[in-house]
Amino acid sequence: MSKSAKIAIGGVAVGLFLWLWLPWWAVFLIVVGVPTAAYLTLDPSQRRRLRRVASKEIGR
Asked: Counting beta carbons within 10 angstroms of the beta carbon of residue 18, is it exposed (0 to 12), middle (13 to 18) or buried (19 or more)?
């Protein structure tokens, strides 16, 4: 199993766990807010590199 597949499965498991104990809007804020905050903490050069890599993977 690839590393990204393991991360995706872990994310789904955490999302389901949070969904059971928190209101839906709190889960939504966490699911949207954590990746957004992580992206915003990157340097501009790291953001460019991430966009370049992501666009190459889409073109496969």
From this structure: middle
